[in-house]
Design goal:
about 500 residues; alpha/beta; Aldehyde Dehydrogenase, Chain A, domain 1; Aldehyde Dehydrogenase, Chain A, domain 2; 2 domains; 22 strands; disordered N terminus; binds NADP nicotinamide-adenine-dinucleotide phosphate
Length: about 500
């Protein structure tokens, strides 16, 4: 186990390169962009700004690698995935440090993400061995009918900054396990984690071209990905706005597309809930990753009879959170990833307050020693109503709005009144209510007395404008497979 001594030897931060066809290279035109540490405002590293030329090269490399990678047995491919899994644990602290520096995830939480990301490698190594076909009873004695599953080919993964490793392995692992080869385009705010993962692929001896990692401008890179007929499928995680643009782009060649998009999760606390568990759950759901998760609680609905007790407990817990430079292992809440992210948080709080919300704790940027970073106090708002921006727009920050409700019917209607449908949570100790509510909520992921439901072995994906397709679970690998029906004529005797 490497120890965290603030010296990252997994990747040289002074000379970051892209990983294409097993080689490390800069952008052909020499262009770079900087990744800024949101805790300090300092430059972490300069990154090659790749574009159309590099993407084309990566696609050609993936196409070449597909010829042999797709022919390996599932067991052979699994052994590579498991080697990378083990290396992720070996380099856990270094990977966590990179993540923390480039996008501000608190170090201890980042260590957790490394394990979470690695779990997809293990899960899909195993799932690759279970890609079963089918035989179908024929309607004539001289026929035999079967269905086989084959890797779809070269795929592209476009990933967001908020889970720089896990959102990538959730795509790359099923692609590798099924026999596909890939091109990965990480977010501009967190490319170093992806490239460090490339180092592990290299160390594990994964053949050249099986996974290619390109950094740079999303426009030219995605233009080439969508225009190039070699790319058969794109898996995207990011905002609903960009997801919709990609749906339009995919039409020209009817490329297969899976989309994991934004969310606006309701978090409902009924009067029969374990209030202590609900307040701890709300804290974990809302303030994890500084509120920058697609599944985080965006609207906290609390039944009127317990709202004061719940709010007091929730505020007490939020005030105890340690905010600070994300590299400090004792910090629980880090900075926002960008100035735009911070401005959005301020806009949502100002809008709510101007319309009558009450600040129960927090409510401003952090000053003093932390003023160079993009810090905002963990904030809880009371007396929130549906006219406020915060109840419809994804805040993506450490702000928890509390909204009162009276009846089960009313809160179900309020919870479902959104174009999003990713995750929803509720707390109750009544069995009948738990069944009724989990069936009535129009969301792809339900946390019933559970604020952190995501695991590699369960399907993850949204309803409505939160996306299409599933990642994780046994469903996750089917996104990378084609089903082929074969009707075979035989000599019947
Ligand atoms: P984003 O702006 O949509 O970016 C996501 C990725 O798309 C990045 O790699 C980005 O590259 C790229 N991109 C941006 N514009 C593009 C374009 N025109 N064509 C092709 N690619 C483009 O989202 P984000 O701000 O990084 O992530 C936050 C969003 O992701 C939130 O809405 C969150 O809810 C959602 N999310 C969803 C899930 C899920 O599983 N459902 C998980 C995590 C996050 P550049 O950075 O280089 O522009």
């Amino acid at each position: 186990m490497k120890t965290n001594n603030s010296v990252i030897d997994l990747i040289d931060l002074s000379e970051i390169k892209m990983y294409i066809n097993g080689k490390w290279q800069g952008a052909q035109n020499g262009e770079i962009f900087s990744v800024i540490n949101p805790s300090t405002g300092e430059v972490v590293a300069n990154i090659p700004r790749g574009g159309q030329i590099e993407t084309k090269h990566a696609i050609e490399s993936a196409e070449q690698a597909f010829k042999t990678w797709s022919k390996l047995t599932a067991n052979e491919r699994a052994s590579y995935l498991l080697k990378v899994h083990d290396l992720m644990y070996e380099y856990k602290d270094q990977l966590a440090e990179i993540m923390s520096l480039e996008m501000g995830k608190p170090f201890t939480e980042a260590q957790g993400e490394v394990g979470f990301a690695a779990s997809y490698l293990q899960w899909f190594a195993e799932e690759g061995r279970r890609v079963y076909g089918e035989t179908i009873p024929p309607s004539a004695a001289n026929k035999r009918l079967m269905v086989i599953k084959q890797p779809i080919g070269v795929v592209a993964a476009i990933t967001p900054w908020n889970f720089p490793l896990a959102m990538m392995t959730r795509k790359v692992a099923p692609a590798m396990a099924s026999g596909c080869t890939s091109i990965v385009k990480p977010a501009g705010q967190s490319p170093i984690s992806a490239l460090a993962f490339g180092k592990l692929l290299e160390m594990a001896g994964v053949p050249n071209g099986v996974v290619n990692i390109i950094t740079g401008s999303s426009g030219p890179i995605s233009d080439e990905i969508f225009a190039n007929p070699t790319v058969k499928k794109i898996s995207f995680t990011g905002s609903t706005e960009v997801g919709k643009m990609l749906v339009k782009k995919s039409a020209a060649q009817l490329k297969r597309l899976s989309l994991e998009l934004g969310g606006h999760a309701p978090f409902i606390v009924f009067e029969d809930a374990d209030i202590e568990a609900a307040a701890s759950g709300a804290l974990a759901s809302k303030f994890r990753n500084t509120g920058q998760t697609c599944v985080c609680a965006n609207r906290i609905y609390v039944q009127r009879s317990i709202i004061e007790k719940f709010s007091a407990l929730f505020v007490e817990k939020a005030k105890a959170l340690k905010v600070g430079n994300s590299i400090d292992p004792s910090v629980q809440v880090g900075p926002l990833v960008s100035y735009d992210g911070l401005a959005k948080v301020e806009e949502h709080v100002n809008d709510a307050v101007s319309k009558g919300a009450r600040i129960l704790c927090g409510g401003k940027r952090l000053e003093g020693d932390l003023s160079d970073g993009l810090f905002y106090e963990p904030t809880i708002l009371g007396e929130v109503n549906s006219d406020m921006l915060i109840t419809t727009d994804e805040t993506f920050g450490p702000v928890a709005p509390i909204i009162a409700f009276d009846t089960e019917e009313e809160v179900i209607e309020l919870a479902n009144k959104t174009e999003y449908g990713l995750a929803a949570y509720f707390y109750t100790q009544n069995i009948s209510r738990s069944v009724r509510v989990s069936e009535a909520l129009q969301f792809g992921i339900i946390g019933m007395n559970d604020a952190v439901p995501t695991v590699a072995q369960a399907p993850f994906g949204g309803f409505k404008e939160s996306g299409m397709g599933k990642e994780g679970g046994h469903q996750g690998i089917s996104e990378y497979l084609e089903e082929k029906y074969i009707s075979m004529g035989i000599e019947a005797k």
